[in-house]
Amino acid sequence: MNRHPAEPLPQAHSQAHSQPRPQPRPQIQSRPIRLGPRSIAALALVSAVGVAGFGWPLVAGPGSQLSAHAQDAPWLFAGLLVLLVGVVTATISESGLGPKAVAMLGVLAATGAALRPIGAGTAGIEPMFFLMVLSGRVLGPGFGFVLGAITMFASALLTGGVGPWMPFQMLSMGWFAMGAGLLPGPMGVPPARAKPRAWGRLRGRGEVGMLAAYGFVAAFAYGTVMNLAGWPFMDSLASTVAFDPHDGLGGNLARFLAYCLATSLGWDLGRAVVTVVLTLALGPTLLKALRRATRRAAFESPVTFEPGRSAAPVTPDDRTP
């Protein structure tokens, strides 16, 4: 059988088929870290224990003997610390955090811990709170809670503030950062083709203003919650502001309000003002930096491909002899 020699291809045609076709480019969609079932269960458990530990003086009936267990508080705090560690472990294991994400957690926690001594003992000036607001906003409620708890733990080791109050501080800071992640609008970096209703449109000055307002209110909430940790055991205070186990809910609420106004209002106001000022001044820049970092860390980022040009069918002329 005779074979016909392959005919030479036209130059233009061969050049057209010799050019490499564009490959689909992967798009990394950065999303906040989700809470899995175990993380939600651990977070609910630690929050329930924390609420009970913080608020039992307000719900204890007249003549309750709960005050007789004041010396058991360190054991309760130790158990709370174990639960917080459980939340951290469950979140890291279920979220599938990679090395970059864990490294980012360490960097942000170290930065927040380093910011705490700057204003320690100075009228409530605590710059670490604004970083927790921005981090919780960008990284979501789950990562925000873990970051807040770890940051407070690291800062306590750095400043020598280790004591029975430390687990309550960790829980309060975790709630503080988690609340920023629950605010409306985009929590992470939206993908290029995300639906507006799924990611929200609140960005720019509106977003920074919302975060500043949240930081102002949450700073007072943090101080109020922390007051509950020590108020029942302040027996040396005047009877008008001290916890009275024989009084009812209304009477103790009035005493607690007077206690907050007399002891922590100035500190809470200083914390709130510093948080607002730093959020307004540094918020836009740090939000961009954190969102850029989440793209590189690729938090639970599914890789999607954009459809490219369809490949041309191979013809007999394209085959080599």
| Structural class computed from helices and strand pairing | mainly alpha
Gyration radius, rounded: 28 Å
Major sheet: 2 strands, antiparallel
What level of helicity do the residues show? 55-70%
Number of domains: 1
Q: What fraction of the residues are assigned to beta strands by DSSP?
A: under 5%
By oligomeric state, this entry counts as single chain
In the CATH hierarchy, what is the class?
A: Mainly Alpha
Note the run of SSEs as H and E.
Answer: HEHHHHHHHHHHE
- Average of per-residue pLDDT values: 75
Termini Cα gap? 16 Å
CATH architectural label: Orthogonal Bundle
Low-confidence stretches: 12-17, 24-30, 187-200
Can you tell me the overall shape? globular
- Major sheet: arrangement of strands: 1-2
Please render the helix and strand layout as text:
Blueprint: H1 11-18, E1 26-28, H2 37-59, H3 73-95, H4 99-115, H5 128-139, H6 141-159, H7 166-181, H8 196-199, H9 205-230, H10 249-263, H11 265-297, E2 303-305
Antiparallel strand pairs: 1-2
Protein name: Integral membrane protein
InterPro entries: ECF_substrate-spec_UCP037395 (IPR017196)
Keywords: Membrane, Transmembrane, Transmembrane helix
